[in-house]
Design goal:
4-stranded mixed β-sheet, globular, 0% helix, mainly beta, 5-stranded antiparallel β-sheet
Length: 105
């Protein structure tokens, strides 16, 4: 299993510097996960990962910092990921990061 790591600080989503984002191959299934580390100010918020490409959007709950990548996104050359934070009347979207996948035919 491969885990891509991100840091979330307020509305900013960044790729973790200690994580290798190279050579991700499209077409895997139940293999790619994401881990998000959140700043202290975001404790108590519900957290949802938002995945998108040029055609579709999908959402996955973030549980204890982790979520799976939706299978549809793993078939693409690239996809974007962002986080939605919700608490009472607050709705806070983050910036997005693009994940490039190598397509092997």
């Amino acid at each position: 299993m491969r885990v891509l790591k991100f840091n979330v600080n307020g509305q900013t989503l960044e790729k973790s510097k200690d994580c290798d984002f190279d050579h991700i191959v499209a077409g895997s299934k139940n293999y790619l996960k994401m881990h998000f580390s959140f700043s202290d100010e975001l404790k108590g918020f519900r957290k949802i990962a938002r995945f998108s490409d040029d055609e579709k959007e999908d959402y996955m709950p973030i549980i204890e910092g982790f979520c799976n990548v939706p299978e549809e996104m793993l078939k693409k050359k690239y996809f974007r990921v962002g986080v939605i934070l919700m608490n009472d009347d607050k709705y806070i979207p983050t910036t997005q990061q693009c994940i490039v996948q190598e397509v092997i035919s």
